[in-house]
Amino acid sequence: xxxxxRIYTKGGDKGTTSLGTGKRVSKHxxxxxxxxxxxxxxAVIGIARLHAEGELDAMLSRIQNxxxxxxxxxxxxxxENQEGLRIVEAQVERLxxxxxxxxxxxxxxNSFVLPGGSPAAAYLHQARTIVRRAEREMTALSEREPVNPxxxxxxxxxxxxxxxxxxxxxxWGKDDVLWQPGANR
Length: 185
Known about the structure:
Layout: E1 16-18, E2 24-26, H1 30-49, H2 54-74, H3 89-103, E3 113-114, H4 119-142, H5 149-169, E4 177-178
Antiparallel strand pairs: 1-2, 3-4
């Protein structure tokens, strides 16, 4: 278990931070940007949970914990080293099972869905777009440095999960706000 005895260390006062390996990098390093964006998504999911109940809240709770795992994974560039916490395929598969279970209760879409409807859905759509940004940052990083492939798959699947969860939060799609192409011409 992690134990935090001091919140501030002053180690970043000159614009650098430590990765999980102890290596110091700039705070705008692409790896730091990727796991910082994952943290941002986690915060928005926390807001969505204020409006979620039951199984949706339970799923979001599991995802929040996974996102800390993902941040821990991303902060260690030495992906061959199995000592670090890594996203594993079972986490991706769990997201897929949850997507399939939620999607089975939804009517097929005849239009794109606009972010909105219920507060939970709006925040889940916001989290979805942040996860998409994290995924872009992770794939860009993977072109320069090693990134766990399961971590990238997890981010990709998570954005789909959050989309379907937003529909579930909108009374199983009944309160979805649908795009009306050209409606304001």
